[in-house]
Amino acid sequence: MQISMKTDDTGIMPNNKIHIPGDLFSRTYELNDGSLSSIIYRTRNQTVAMLDGDSAAVWQHIWDANGEIEGALNYIVQNGTFTQNAESEAAAVLRQFITGLFQRNILGEDIPQSHITQINTLRGGINSNDDLQVRFAQKLADNHIFYSLVFETTYRCNENCVHCYLPENTRIPNMTLSQIDRLFGEFHALGGFTILLTGGEILMRPDILGIFALVKKYRFLPSLVSNLILLDDKDEMLDAIVGLNPKSVGCSIYSVRPELHDAITKVPGSLQKSLNAIKRLRLAGLSVIIKAPLMKATTPYWRELSALAAELGCAIQFDLSITAKNDGNLSPLTQRVTDTALIREIFTSEYYNLAIPNEQLAGLRGPHPDAGLCGAGATGLTIGPQGEIRPCIGLCVPIGQYPRDSLAEVWNNSPFIGQFSKLRANDVKECRECPDFAYCIRCPGVWFAEHGSYTRPDEYTCFLGHQLADTQRAKNNNH
Fold it and tell me: Among 94-108, 204-218, 281-295, 348-362, whose mean pLDDT is lowest?
Protein backbone atom coordinates (compact mmCIF):
# COMPACT_ATOMS: atom_id res chain seq x y z
CA MET A 1 0.00 0.00 0.00
CA GLN A 2 1.47 3.36 -1.03
CA ILE A 3 1.21 6.09 1.60
CA SER A 4 1.42 9.71 0.51
CA MET A 5 2.33 12.06 3.37
CA LYS A 6 3.04 15.66 2.46
CA THR A 7 5.56 17.49 4.60
CA ASP A 8 6.25 21.05 5.52
CA ASP A 9 9.46 22.67 6.79
CA THR A 10 9.33 20.69 10.03
CA GLY A 11 9.41 17.40 8.12
CA ILE A 12 6.13 16.21 9.62
CA MET A 13 2.74 17.24 8.17
CA PRO A 14 1.22 20.35 6.62
CA ASN A 15 0.12 22.75 9.33
CA ASN A 16 1.51 20.34 11.95
CA LYS A 17 -1.72 18.36 11.92
CA ILE A 18 -2.96 14.97 10.77
CA HIS A 19 -6.52 14.05 9.84
CA ILE A 20 -8.43 12.03 12.45
CA PRO A 21 -11.00 9.90 10.58
CA GLY A 22 -14.59 10.20 11.73
CA ASP A 23 -14.82 6.45 12.33
CA LEU A 24 -11.79 6.37 14.64
CA PHE A 25 -12.25 5.81 18.38
CA SER A 26 -9.57 5.72 21.05
CA ARG A 27 -8.84 5.91 24.75
CA THR A 28 -5.60 5.88 26.73
CA TYR A 29 -5.38 4.46 30.25
CA GLU A 30 -2.91 4.81 33.08
CA LEU A 31 -2.37 1.40 34.66
CA ASN A 32 -1.60 0.64 38.27
CA ASP A 33 2.17 0.62 37.65
CA GLY A 34 2.01 4.12 36.12
CA SER A 35 2.47 2.95 32.52
CA LEU A 36 0.14 3.96 29.69
CA SER A 37 -1.83 1.76 27.32
CA SER A 38 -3.99 2.88 24.39
CA ILE A 39 -6.69 1.16 22.35
CA ILE A 40 -7.52 2.47 18.87
CA TYR A 41 -10.46 1.19 16.83
CA ARG A 42 -11.45 2.14 13.30
CA THR A 43 -14.95 0.90 12.66
CA ARG A 44 -15.34 1.15 8.87
CA ASN A 45 -12.51 -1.28 8.20
CA GLN A 46 -12.66 -3.01 11.60
CA THR A 47 -9.01 -2.27 12.37
CA VAL A 48 -7.69 -2.38 15.94
CA ALA A 49 -4.37 -1.26 17.39
CA MET A 50 -2.97 -1.37 20.90
CA LEU A 51 -0.11 0.89 22.01
CA ASP A 52 1.90 0.79 25.22
CA GLY A 53 4.37 3.02 27.04
CA ASP A 54 5.84 5.94 25.09
CA SER A 55 3.89 5.00 21.97
CA ALA A 56 0.67 5.33 23.95
CA ALA A 57 1.80 8.68 25.34
CA VAL A 58 2.65 10.03 21.88
CA TRP A 59 -0.70 8.87 20.54
CA GLN A 60 -2.57 10.37 23.49
CA HIS A 61 -1.09 13.79 22.68
CA ILE A 62 -2.23 13.49 19.06
CA TRP A 63 -5.70 12.20 19.94
CA ASP A 64 -6.38 14.73 22.69
CA ALA A 65 -5.32 17.55 20.34
CA ASN A 66 -7.57 16.25 17.53
CA GLY A 67 -4.62 15.61 15.24
CA GLU A 68 -2.33 18.48 16.25
CA ILE A 69 1.18 17.06 16.56
CA GLU A 70 3.03 19.73 18.52
CA GLY A 71 2.40 18.10 21.90
CA ALA A 72 3.49 14.70 20.59
CA LEU A 73 6.68 16.18 19.16
CA ASN A 74 7.48 17.97 22.42
CA TYR A 75 6.94 14.72 24.34
CA ILE A 76 9.46 12.92 22.13
CA VAL A 77 11.98 15.74 22.48
CA GLN A 78 11.64 15.73 26.28
CA ASN A 79 11.70 11.96 26.76
CA GLY A 80 13.89 10.67 23.92
CA THR A 81 17.62 10.07 23.65
CA PHE A 82 19.29 11.80 20.71
CA THR A 83 22.76 11.90 19.22
CA GLN A 84 22.87 15.37 17.65
CA ASN A 85 19.81 17.49 16.77
CA ALA A 86 17.01 16.59 19.16
CA GLU A 87 14.23 18.36 17.24
CA SER A 88 15.21 16.90 13.88
CA GLU A 89 15.61 13.40 15.23
CA ALA A 90 12.36 13.65 17.21
CA ALA A 91 10.58 14.76 14.04
CA ALA A 92 11.91 11.66 12.25
CA VAL A 93 10.68 9.44 15.08
CA LEU A 94 7.24 11.02 14.99
CA ARG A 95 7.07 10.74 11.22
CA GLN A 96 7.90 7.03 11.46
CA PHE A 97 5.23 6.58 14.15
CA ILE A 98 2.56 8.31 12.05
CA THR A 99 3.57 6.40 8.94
CA GLY A 100 3.14 3.17 10.86
CA LEU A 101 -0.43 4.12 11.76
CA PHE A 102 -1.15 4.84 8.10
CA GLN A 103 0.30 1.51 7.06
CA ARG A 104 -1.89 -0.30 9.60
CA ASN A 105 -4.95 1.49 8.19
CA ILE A 106 -5.54 3.29 11.49
CA LEU A 107 -5.04 6.69 9.90
CA GLY A 108 -5.92 7.84 6.40
CA GLU A 109 -8.75 9.57 4.66
CA ASP A 110 -12.34 8.71 5.54
CA ILE A 111 -13.31 5.45 3.88
CA PRO A 112 -15.92 5.94 1.12
CA GLN A 113 -19.06 3.85 1.39
CA SER A 114 -18.40 2.35 -2.04
CA HIS A 115 -15.15 0.86 -0.70
CA ILE A 116 -16.96 -1.14 1.97
CA THR A 117 -18.16 -4.46 0.61
CA GLN A 118 -17.93 -7.44 2.91
CA ILE A 119 -16.39 -6.68 6.26
CA ASN A 120 -16.06 -8.42 9.59
CA THR A 121 -17.46 -11.73 8.35
CA LEU A 122 -17.20 -13.70 11.56
CA ARG A 123 -16.98 -17.48 11.32
CA GLY A 124 -15.88 -19.82 14.08
CA GLY A 125 -13.18 -18.79 16.49
CA ILE A 126 -11.76 -15.39 17.37
CA ASN A 127 -10.04 -13.35 14.66
CA SER A 128 -6.89 -11.34 15.32
CA ASN A 129 -8.79 -8.13 16.05
CA ASP A 130 -11.04 -9.90 18.54
CA ASP A 131 -8.01 -11.48 20.19
CA LEU A 132 -6.34 -8.08 20.54
CA GLN A 133 -9.45 -6.65 22.18
CA VAL A 134 -9.72 -9.62 24.53
CA ARG A 135 -6.10 -9.11 25.61
CA PHE A 136 -6.64 -5.38 26.10
CA ALA A 137 -9.80 -5.98 28.11
CA GLN A 138 -7.92 -8.48 30.27
CA LYS A 139 -5.23 -5.89 30.92
CA LEU A 140 -7.88 -3.42 32.06
CA ALA A 141 -9.58 -6.09 34.18
CA ASP A 142 -6.26 -6.74 35.92
CA ASN A 143 -6.16 -3.02 36.72
CA HIS A 144 -9.87 -2.80 37.67
CA ILE A 145 -10.65 -0.18 35.03
CA PHE A 146 -14.28 0.42 34.06
CA TYR A 147 -14.05 -0.01 30.28
CA SER A 148 -17.43 -1.17 28.93
CA LEU A 149 -21.10 -0.51 29.55
CA VAL A 150 -24.21 -2.36 28.37
CA PHE A 151 -27.15 0.02 28.46
CA GLU A 152 -30.61 -1.49 28.14
CA THR A 153 -32.37 1.60 26.85
CA THR A 154 -35.89 0.17 27.22
CA TYR A 155 -37.70 -3.14 27.64
CA ARG A 156 -40.47 -2.10 25.25
CA CYS A 157 -40.41 -3.91 21.94
CA ASN A 158 -42.42 -4.05 18.73
CA GLU A 159 -41.86 -7.80 18.47
CA ASN A 160 -43.06 -10.49 20.87
CA CYS A 161 -40.51 -13.25 20.38
CA VAL A 162 -41.35 -16.66 21.78
CA HIS A 163 -37.90 -17.09 23.34
CA CYS A 164 -37.42 -13.59 24.76
CA TYR A 165 -35.65 -13.48 28.13
CA LEU A 166 -37.11 -10.15 29.21
CA PRO A 167 -39.78 -10.15 31.95
CA GLU A 168 -43.44 -10.14 30.98
CA ASN A 169 -43.94 -6.52 32.11
CA THR A 170 -41.90 -4.44 29.69
CA ARG A 171 -43.84 -1.17 29.96
CA ILE A 172 -41.79 0.28 32.81
CA PRO A 173 -40.55 3.87 33.13
CA ASN A 174 -37.21 4.58 31.50
CA MET A 175 -34.41 6.86 32.63
CA THR A 176 -34.63 10.39 31.27
CA LEU A 177 -32.10 11.96 28.91
CA SER A 178 -30.72 14.12 31.70
CA GLN A 179 -30.19 11.05 33.88
CA ILE A 180 -28.53 9.25 30.98
CA ASP A 181 -26.24 12.23 30.39
CA ARG A 182 -25.15 12.09 34.02
CA LEU A 183 -24.72 8.31 33.79
CA PHE A 184 -22.56 8.57 30.68
CA GLY A 185 -20.49 11.30 32.31
CA GLU A 186 -19.75 9.08 35.31
CA PHE A 187 -18.95 6.16 33.01
CA HIS A 188 -16.51 8.30 31.02
CA ALA A 189 -14.82 9.58 34.16
CA LEU A 190 -14.22 6.00 35.33
CA GLY A 191 -12.57 4.99 32.04
CA GLY A 192 -15.55 4.23 29.81
CA PHE A 193 -14.84 3.48 26.17
CA THR A 194 -17.19 0.89 24.64
CA ILE A 195 -20.97 1.02 24.97
CA LEU A 196 -23.63 -1.38 23.77
CA LEU A 197 -27.12 0.03 23.28
CA THR A 198 -29.73 -2.70 23.46
CA GLY A 199 -33.26 -3.34 24.68
CA GLY A 200 -36.08 -4.31 24.20
CA GLU A 201 -36.03 -2.38 20.95
CA ILE A 202 -33.84 0.71 21.10
CA LEU A 203 -35.69 2.46 18.28
CA MET A 204 -38.91 2.35 20.34
CA ARG A 205 -37.53 5.17 22.52
CA PRO A 206 -38.85 8.49 21.18
CA ASP A 207 -35.63 10.16 22.42
CA ILE A 208 -33.20 7.64 20.90
CA LEU A 209 -31.63 10.36 18.73
CA GLY A 210 -30.84 12.21 21.95
CA ILE A 211 -29.15 9.10 23.33
CA PHE A 212 -27.12 8.82 20.12
CA ALA A 213 -26.05 12.45 20.58
CA LEU A 214 -24.84 11.68 24.11
CA VAL A 215 -22.82 8.70 22.85
CA LYS A 216 -21.10 11.05 20.40
CA LYS A 217 -20.63 13.72 23.09
CA TYR A 218 -18.52 11.36 25.19
CA ARG A 219 -16.77 9.79 22.17
CA PHE A 220 -17.76 6.26 23.17
CA LEU A 221 -17.24 3.39 20.73
CA PRO A 222 -20.84 2.22 20.22
CA SER A 223 -22.45 -1.04 19.19
CA LEU A 224 -26.19 -1.35 18.63
CA VAL A 225 -28.66 -4.23 18.82
CA SER A 226 -32.01 -3.71 17.11
CA ASN A 227 -34.57 -5.65 15.12
CA LEU A 228 -34.39 -2.67 12.72
CA ILE A 229 -37.98 -2.93 11.50
CA LEU A 230 -38.55 0.73 12.45
CA LEU A 231 -35.63 1.69 10.20
CA ASP A 232 -37.42 0.37 7.12
CA ASP A 233 -38.12 3.74 5.53
CA LYS A 234 -36.80 6.37 7.94
CA ASP A 235 -33.91 8.33 6.41
CA GLU A 236 -33.40 10.47 9.54
CA MET A 237 -32.85 7.39 11.69
CA LEU A 238 -30.56 5.81 9.12
CA ASP A 239 -28.47 8.98 8.94
CA ALA A 240 -28.24 9.10 12.75
CA ILE A 241 -27.02 5.50 12.97
CA VAL A 242 -24.52 6.02 10.15
CA GLY A 243 -23.32 9.17 11.93
CA LEU A 244 -22.49 7.13 15.02
CA ASN A 245 -19.97 5.07 13.01
CA PRO A 246 -20.81 2.08 15.22
CA LYS A 247 -18.51 -0.87 15.66
CA SER A 248 -21.44 -3.05 14.63
CA VAL A 249 -25.20 -3.20 14.39
CA GLY A 250 -26.63 -6.52 15.55
CA CYS A 251 -29.97 -7.74 14.25
CA SER A 252 -31.68 -11.02 15.10
CA ILE A 253 -32.73 -13.09 12.11
CA TYR A 254 -34.21 -16.47 12.99
CA SER A 255 -34.75 -17.95 9.53
CA VAL A 256 -34.64 -16.94 5.90
CA ARG A 257 -38.13 -18.42 5.66
CA PRO A 258 -40.70 -15.73 6.47
CA GLU A 259 -43.19 -18.19 7.96
CA LEU A 260 -40.59 -19.36 10.51
CA HIS A 261 -39.04 -15.98 11.34
CA ASP A 262 -42.39 -14.21 11.65
CA ALA A 263 -43.83 -17.03 13.76
CA ILE A 264 -41.05 -16.38 16.30
CA THR A 265 -41.42 -12.60 16.34
CA LYS A 266 -45.24 -12.81 16.08
CA VAL A 267 -45.10 -9.86 13.67
CA PRO A 268 -46.17 -10.57 10.08
CA GLY A 269 -43.71 -9.12 7.59
CA SER A 270 -40.98 -8.60 10.20
CA LEU A 271 -38.37 -10.63 8.29
CA GLN A 272 -38.64 -8.56 5.15
CA LYS A 273 -38.54 -5.29 7.08
CA SER A 274 -35.42 -6.35 8.99
CA LEU A 275 -33.70 -7.51 5.81
CA ASN A 276 -34.55 -4.26 4.01
CA ALA A 277 -32.98 -2.30 6.87
CA ILE A 278 -29.87 -4.53 6.94
CA LYS A 279 -29.35 -3.89 3.23
CA ARG A 280 -29.60 -0.13 3.80
CA LEU A 281 -27.03 -0.26 6.58
CA ARG A 282 -24.66 -2.34 4.47
CA LEU A 283 -25.02 0.07 1.55
CA ALA A 284 -24.07 2.83 4.01
CA GLY A 285 -20.89 0.93 4.82
CA LEU A 286 -21.74 -0.26 8.33
CA SER A 287 -20.79 -3.61 9.82
CA VAL A 288 -23.89 -5.69 10.54
CA ILE A 289 -23.97 -8.85 12.63
CA ILE A 290 -26.82 -11.26 12.02
CA LYS A 291 -27.58 -12.71 15.43
CA ALA A 292 -29.13 -16.13 15.00
CA PRO A 293 -30.50 -17.80 18.13
CA LEU A 294 -31.11 -21.42 17.16
CA MET A 295 -34.41 -23.01 18.15
CA LYS A 296 -36.20 -26.27 17.48
CA ALA A 297 -38.21 -24.94 14.55
CA THR A 298 -35.34 -23.10 12.84
CA THR A 299 -32.20 -25.16 13.43
CA PRO A 300 -32.80 -27.66 10.58
CA TYR A 301 -32.33 -24.71 8.20
CA TRP A 302 -29.37 -23.06 9.88
CA ARG A 303 -27.15 -23.28 6.80
CA GLU A 304 -29.59 -21.03 4.95
CA LEU A 305 -28.78 -18.27 7.44
CA SER A 306 -25.09 -18.75 6.77
CA ALA A 307 -25.70 -18.29 3.04
CA LEU A 308 -27.81 -15.19 3.73
CA ALA A 309 -25.04 -13.60 5.79
CA ALA A 310 -22.52 -14.24 3.03
CA GLU A 311 -24.86 -12.74 0.45
CA LEU A 312 -25.39 -9.59 2.50
CA GLY A 313 -21.75 -9.26 3.56
CA CYS A 314 -22.67 -9.59 7.23
CA ALA A 315 -21.05 -11.27 10.16
CA ILE A 316 -23.10 -14.01 11.78
CA GLN A 317 -23.31 -15.34 15.33
CA PHE A 318 -25.18 -18.55 16.02
CA ASP A 319 -26.43 -19.05 19.55
CA LEU A 320 -27.83 -22.17 21.24
CA SER A 321 -28.22 -20.58 24.68
CA ILE A 322 -31.97 -20.05 24.90
CA THR A 323 -32.42 -19.01 28.52
CA ALA A 324 -35.12 -18.61 31.11
CA LYS A 325 -36.63 -15.17 31.47
CA ASN A 326 -34.93 -12.70 33.78
CA ASP A 327 -37.79 -13.09 36.26
CA GLY A 328 -37.38 -16.89 36.39
CA ASN A 329 -40.15 -17.81 33.93
CA LEU A 330 -39.03 -21.04 32.23
CA SER A 331 -41.29 -20.87 29.18
CA PRO A 332 -38.50 -20.03 26.68
CA LEU A 333 -36.72 -23.30 27.49
CA THR A 334 -39.20 -25.25 25.37
CA GLN A 335 -37.47 -23.69 22.33
CA ARG A 336 -34.08 -25.25 23.09
CA VAL A 337 -32.50 -27.52 20.49
CA THR A 338 -32.06 -31.10 21.71
CA ASP A 339 -31.48 -32.87 18.39
CA THR A 340 -27.96 -34.23 18.89
CA ALA A 341 -27.40 -34.80 15.18
CA LEU A 342 -28.06 -31.12 14.41
CA ILE A 343 -25.98 -29.94 17.35
CA ARG A 344 -23.05 -32.11 16.29
CA GLU A 345 -23.37 -30.84 12.73
CA ILE A 346 -22.99 -27.28 13.99
CA PHE A 347 -20.16 -28.16 16.37
CA THR A 348 -18.17 -29.79 13.55
CA SER A 349 -18.67 -26.79 11.27
CA GLU A 350 -16.70 -23.55 11.05
CA TYR A 351 -19.20 -22.08 13.53
CA TYR A 352 -18.38 -24.34 16.45
CA ASN A 353 -17.30 -21.38 18.63
CA LEU A 354 -20.86 -20.26 19.24
CA ALA A 355 -21.79 -17.07 21.00
CA ILE A 356 -23.86 -16.21 24.01
CA PRO A 357 -25.35 -12.71 23.97
CA ASN A 358 -22.55 -10.32 22.92
CA GLU A 359 -19.66 -12.59 23.87
CA GLN A 360 -17.62 -15.18 22.02
CA LEU A 361 -17.67 -18.42 23.95
CA ALA A 362 -14.08 -19.22 23.08
CA GLY A 363 -13.05 -16.29 25.24
CA LEU A 364 -14.95 -17.72 28.21
CA ARG A 365 -13.46 -21.19 28.19
CA GLY A 366 -10.48 -22.15 30.26
CA PRO A 367 -8.26 -25.21 29.96
CA HIS A 368 -8.21 -25.87 33.67
CA PRO A 369 -10.72 -25.58 36.53
CA ASP A 370 -8.55 -22.86 38.05
CA ALA A 371 -9.88 -20.61 35.29
CA GLY A 372 -12.23 -17.87 36.38
CA LEU A 373 -15.85 -18.87 36.50
CA CYS A 374 -17.00 -15.84 34.51
CA GLY A 375 -15.88 -12.35 33.54
CA ALA A 376 -19.04 -10.58 34.72
CA GLY A 377 -18.13 -7.28 36.34
CA ALA A 378 -14.48 -7.54 35.32
CA THR A 379 -14.36 -4.61 32.89
CA GLY A 380 -17.90 -3.27 32.92
CA LEU A 381 -21.49 -3.30 34.08
CA THR A 382 -25.03 -3.43 32.71
CA ILE A 383 -27.58 -0.69 33.39
CA GLY A 384 -31.28 -1.49 32.97
CA PRO A 385 -33.97 0.93 31.74
CA GLN A 386 -34.85 2.11 35.26
CA GLY A 387 -31.23 2.38 36.38
CA GLU A 388 -30.84 -1.07 37.90
CA ILE A 389 -27.16 -2.02 37.94
CA ARG A 390 -26.08 -5.62 37.25
CA PRO A 391 -22.69 -7.31 36.72
CA CYS A 392 -23.58 -8.15 33.10
CA ILE A 393 -26.58 -8.43 30.81
CA GLY A 394 -26.87 -12.17 31.42
CA LEU A 395 -26.46 -12.22 35.20
CA CYS A 396 -29.56 -10.65 36.75
CA VAL A 397 -28.19 -10.03 40.22
CA PRO A 398 -28.95 -6.45 41.32
CA ILE A 399 -25.87 -4.75 42.76
CA GLY A 400 -27.04 -1.13 42.73
CA GLN A 401 -29.69 1.34 41.62
CA TYR A 402 -28.79 4.41 39.58
CA PRO A 403 -28.85 7.34 40.30
CA ARG A 404 -29.26 6.49 43.99
CA ASP A 405 -25.96 4.61 43.79
CA SER A 406 -23.18 6.18 41.75
CA LEU A 407 -21.28 4.06 39.24
CA ALA A 408 -18.06 4.74 41.13
CA GLU A 409 -19.56 3.48 44.39
CA VAL A 410 -20.79 0.26 42.80
CA TRP A 411 -17.66 -0.31 40.72
CA ASN A 412 -15.22 0.23 43.56
CA ASN A 413 -17.17 -1.05 46.57
CA SER A 414 -19.67 -3.68 45.45
CA PRO A 415 -19.32 -6.74 47.72
CA PHE A 416 -20.75 -8.90 44.94
CA ILE A 417 -18.12 -7.92 42.37
CA GLY A 418 -15.33 -8.52 44.88
CA GLN A 419 -16.65 -11.96 45.78
CA PHE A 420 -17.68 -13.03 42.29
CA SER A 421 -14.30 -12.16 40.75
CA LYS A 422 -12.66 -14.65 43.11
CA LEU A 423 -14.83 -17.57 42.01
CA ARG A 424 -13.12 -20.29 40.03
CA ALA A 425 -14.65 -23.13 38.09
CA ASN A 426 -12.89 -25.30 40.65
CA ASP A 427 -15.39 -23.99 43.19
CA VAL A 428 -18.24 -25.62 41.28
CA LYS A 429 -18.40 -29.33 42.08
CA GLU A 430 -19.91 -30.29 38.72
CA CYS A 431 -17.16 -28.42 36.85
CA ARG A 432 -14.33 -29.62 39.06
CA GLU A 433 -15.21 -33.24 38.42
CA CYS A 434 -16.13 -32.91 34.74
CA PRO A 435 -13.74 -34.52 32.22
CA ASP A 436 -15.09 -32.22 29.50
CA PHE A 437 -14.48 -28.98 31.36
CA ALA A 438 -12.13 -27.58 28.71
CA TYR A 439 -15.04 -27.57 26.25
CA CYS A 440 -17.54 -26.06 28.67
CA ILE A 441 -19.96 -23.47 27.33
CA ARG A 442 -20.55 -21.90 30.70
CA CYS A 443 -22.60 -18.87 31.64
CA PRO A 444 -23.50 -18.44 35.31
CA GLY A 445 -26.20 -15.98 34.25
CA VAL A 446 -27.98 -18.76 32.39
CA TRP A 447 -27.73 -20.96 35.48
CA PHE A 448 -29.02 -18.21 37.75
CA ALA A 449 -32.00 -17.44 35.52
CA GLU A 450 -32.98 -21.09 35.40
CA HIS A 451 -32.68 -22.16 39.03
CA GLY A 452 -31.50 -19.19 41.10
CA SER A 453 -27.86 -20.18 41.60
CA TYR A 454 -24.85 -18.98 39.63
CA THR A 455 -22.65 -21.76 41.00
CA ARG A 456 -24.74 -24.74 39.87
CA PRO A 457 -24.78 -25.56 36.15
CA ASP A 458 -28.07 -26.30 34.46
CA GLU A 459 -28.51 -29.61 32.64
CA TYR A 460 -28.55 -28.04 29.19
CA THR A 461 -25.15 -26.40 29.74
CA CYS A 462 -23.67 -29.77 30.58
CA PHE A 463 -25.45 -31.42 27.65
CA LEU A 464 -23.95 -28.92 25.19
CA GLY A 465 -20.53 -29.18 26.78
CA HIS A 466 -20.46 -32.96 26.39
CA GLN A 467 -21.66 -32.73 22.78
CA LEU A 468 -18.95 -30.20 21.95
CA ALA A 469 -16.28 -32.28 23.67
CA ASP A 470 -17.25 -35.43 21.77
CA THR A 471 -17.36 -33.73 18.36
CA GLN A 472 -14.10 -31.82 18.81
CA ARG A 473 -12.20 -34.86 20.09
CA ALA A 474 -13.47 -36.89 17.14
CA LYS A 475 -12.50 -34.08 14.79
CA ASN A 476 -8.99 -33.89 16.26
CA ASN A 477 -8.53 -37.65 16.09
CA ASN A 478 -9.43 -37.64 12.41
CA HIS A 479 -6.61 -35.19 11.78
Answer: 348-362
Q: Helix, strand, or coil here: 372?
A: strand
**What angle (nearest 5°) sits at the alpha carbon of residue 137, between those of residues 182 and 140?**
70
Candidates 351, 388, 390; CA nearest to 374 is 390
Residue 63, helix vs strand vs coil? helix
Which long-range contacts (C-beta less than 8 Å, at least 24 apart) are formed by 214-217?
Answer: 214/177, 214/180, 214/181, 214/184, 215/184, 215/244, 216/243, 216/244, 217/181, 217/184
The more confident residue out of 348 and 13 is 348
Distance of alpha carbon 181 from alpha carbon 185, whole angstroms: 6
**Per-residue pLDDT averaged across 278-288, rounded?**
95
User: What's phi and psi for 246, nearest 5 deg?
Assistant: -65, 155
C-beta atoms surrounding 221 within 10 Å: 23
**24 neighbors 42 (Cβ within 8 angstroms):** yes
* Chain segment 311-332, per-residue pLDDT in tens: 999 999 998 989 999 888 999 9
209 neighbors 240 (Cβ within 8 angstroms): yes
| pLDDT tens figures, 23-75 | 999 999 999 999 999 999 999 999 999 999 999 999 999 999 999 999 999 99
